[in-house]
Fold this sequence. Notes:
The protein is an alpha+beta fold. The protein folds into two domains: 3-101, Folate-binding fold (2-Layer Sandwich), CATH 3.30.2270.10; 148-175, no CATH class. It is built from four helices and six strands. It has helices at 37-44, 95-101, 154-163, 165-174, and strands spanning 3-6, 11-14, 18-23, 53-60, 67-73, 78-84. The chain has a four-stranded antiparallel sheet with strand order 3-4-5-6. A two-stranded antiparallel sheet has the order 1-2.
Amino acid sequence: MLLIHCPYCEEERPELEFRNAGEAHVVRSSNMAAESDEDFEKFFFIRDNPKGIIYERWRHIHGCARFFNAVRDTVSDKFIMTYKAGEPKPKKLPVASVAAAAPAAPVAYANRPPDQLNEKPAVRKAAPKNEPAQKQEPSAKRASPKKPGVTKTAASRTTATRTGAGKTAAKKASK
């Protein structure tokens, strides 16, 4: 579990207490009504998603409920630093934190161990087109005895069961 430092509470808390609020330091236009649709779309919807260090807004939902900014490495998912909302973007990041956030070994994707990252998966060979495909033997089906007065459709079975017509016809046939 990730531990995130809240700059207002001044303590590290589990990630379950926080919610991501998107990219930090997004500049809002002073006159939104004058913006074109394309510019508004870029402001409202389009965000950067770089690999590496990013600046994000977070909210301490189950604590002080305040917004703050965080610097996070998307490769290792480690928080480098957090700072209060409204403070300017840090010009220099702590060197020790950036070095600690960088992964020591290659990241394993798709649940593969690091030593198998560069190996190509085995490819299954398809059966030749000239040979007929092997037929699977059908499983033994239970033969249900046909009862007089019982129909094959589901709707008829329901009607026959509700009215008792199927039971009556079966009793008469057995006598």
